[in-house]
Structure formats: structure tokens, C-alpha cells
Amino acid sequence: MKYTRTLRQLLDRMARIERMERGKVCRMTGRGHYNHQTWQGGRNVVRYVPAHQAPALRVAIEGYKLFMKLAEQYADAIIRRTRAQAASTAKRKPPRTKGGRPRRP
């Protein structure tokens, strides 16, 4: 597959993201920990995170959001290229055959 400069840059940025986590983090009222919620297997899964781990978890969640944004941009670029190739192919005439059309009986 031929990659343009933009596509290569998107892939490189995606590869540089080292920490990712799905979900969101909510502070538990009146408690010393945070609530980390994710959707897995059709269910909301909750785990409790100590307050000192919450900042790193937020950074990992932002990493996941950035990764998904870059992946969408990559997919959009590939879709545009695919459509452009299909449009240019549709404009060309099919090659002629030597024998012509077969005769009807």
C-alpha cells in the first residue's frame, strides 16, 4: 500500500501514544478514591482508583481519545483516496476485445 506523507504522519503519531485507557474518571463524593467507569461486554464496569493514581489515569484516557481521533482521520483519508480511485476508474472505457460481440442465434 502506498502511503502519502500525511498518512505516514498519522500512523507515526498513533504509534507514539504509549498510554491508553478507555472510560472516564469521576471523583467519589466524600471518599478518598475515584470511580473509573468503562463499557465492556455490554455492561458498565466500575473499578475504584486511589486519588494518587487518578492523574495518570486521566492522561491515559486522553491518550485513547487522541488515538481514536487520529484513527478516524486516517480512515477518512483512506476512504477519500478509495473513492477518488473508483471515480477515476469508472471514467475509463473498458478495453476492447478482438472478436467483438458474440452473435445471437
Question: Can you tell me about this structure?
Answer:
Helices cover 48% and strands 19% of the residues. It has 105 residues and is α+β, with helices and mostly antiparallel strands. It has one domain. Strands 1-2-3 form a three-stranded antiparallel sheet, with helices on one face. The protein is elongated and about 85 Å long.
Biggest sheet strand line-up: 1-2-3
Helical content stands at 40-55%
The Rg value, from CA coordinates, equals 25 Å
> Helical region count?
2
What descriptive keywords fit this protein?
alpha+beta, single chain, 2 helices, 105 residues, 3 strands
List strands and helices in order, with pairings:
Blueprint: H1 5-16, E1 24-27, E2 33-40, E3 43-50, H2 54-91
Antiparallel strand pairs: 1-2, 2-3
Helix pairs in contact: 1-2
Question: Could you write a compact summary of the structure shown?
Answer:
This protein has 105 residues and is α+β, with helices and mostly antiparallel strands. The protein contains 2 helices and 3 strands. The longest helix has 38 residues, at 54-91.
